[in-house]
Amino acid sequence: MTTTHPSVTQGLARWASDLQSTGIPAAIRARAKTSLIDTIGVSIAGSQTRVGRIARAVGLQAGSHGWSTLFSSAAHVSEQTAAFVNSVSAHALDFDDNCYAGVVHGSAVIVPAALAMGQKVNATGGELITAFVAGSECEYAIGAASRNVLYEQGWWTTGVLGPIGSCVAASHLLKLDPEKITSALGLAITGAGGTKACFGTDGKALMAGRAAEAGVVCALLAAQGARGPVDAIESTNGFVKLFNEGVFDPAAIDRLGSHWFSQEPGVDIKRIPVCLSSHAAVDAVMHLVATHRIRLDEIESIVCDVPPMVSRNLVYTHPETVQESQFSMQYAMAVSLKFGTLTLEHLDQKLLKNNELASLMARVHMRTGPLWDDAKLRQSAPEGAEVQLRLSSGKVFQLFRATARGSVGSPLSSQEIGDKFIACAAPAIGNGPAETLLSRLRTLDGDVFVRDLFESETPT
């Protein structure tokens, strides 16, 4: 179908094709580098998980060879295989970042795709960052234009929107012209999908991997001359109608380059390795316990008044698996209270049988009260929480948090980002290689070649 005016995908393609490093503000490039560092760290950790190992085994069975690195492995494979496997690893622990422009896990999909393609074409770190920004901003622009309708309907936005970001990043590194990027996007969008039924299962990480792989494959297909629909967004049978109930705000697309979605609403970096929906509540209860010096045996009940999004995401009140525990307010609260924090070590099947944790979990309750009838509050605090902590003495303490530590308004420091990276990477590749890799990544925005980043990264 030929359109009279440029379609949405044509607009994205032209903007992405024209984007140069000099057109990206230094603050945005710095944010991009932080996302790259954080995502590579959690990917290396995730490569050691059961689902990460499954994805790697399947990827290696494909027998394809290339320039692209599999994290925590000496193997080099094709760019599409690396994008799939490393993206699964990036999301395996649910420790990767999040953006409310679409409510997507952007980096877990875009970073592996961009890295894999960057290694194929022997890109520099500076080129990698530019491609990552192009992919992120295009994906977040579509997410913002969707006004979160598809997320509220039960679509898993990372699966639906992720191929857009990975496709644009891969296309930018291949230096495709606007016409070919438009075709690549058309192929990526018409083949996208994913539902939130995957939460608490291997499907969530595996679908992230498929989104990364799809973007890379569609870029490669378009580079060879494959054509996709120009109007994949606005077609009668396209994204807006079928995924988003006809809702779409084209102004979000028009703002590309003058507004940076990675800055506003921004990208949230996770402090603890569970669903972001629990983080604000955990921060609130930990603040109350520390401020008032509350002992665990004094706690009678903890009531978390949360917005509808949180209630729908944290569905496991009595988790039976590690994956279910990552979508449980009760588990996040109980572990944080008992151990003073929640780390990767606490994603342990044995802890689900711990009697003290079970007792704490039984005292944690979640509800969505009238507070959240306010649409403006739901928008400003989509995963916020008002926590009421009641003691056996009858005393009651209460605290509201709109966002969690690690959010745009309360970012983790450079030291905390580095510490998280080492905590994720060192158990898999050793402390020395992890420190070396972190040092290289911190100087990524320059002429260093992406192929050289991982040359000493070998499993212990």
UniProtKB/TrEMBL annotation:
Coiled coil: none annotated. Pfam families: MmgE_PrpD_C, MmgE_PrpD_N. InterPro entries: MmgE/PrpD_sf, MmgE/PrpD_sf_1, MmgE/PrpD_sf_2, MmgE_PrpD, MmgE_PrpD_C, MmgE_PrpD_N. Residues 11-246 form the MmgE/PrpD N-terminal domain. Residues 273-436 form the MmgE/PrpD C-terminal domain. PANTHER family: 2-METHYLCITRATE DEHYDRATASE (PTHR16943:SF8), 2-METHYLCITRATE DEHYDRATASE-RELATED (PTHR16943). Belongs to the PrpD family. This is MmgE/PrpD family protein. It comes from Polaromonas jejuensis.
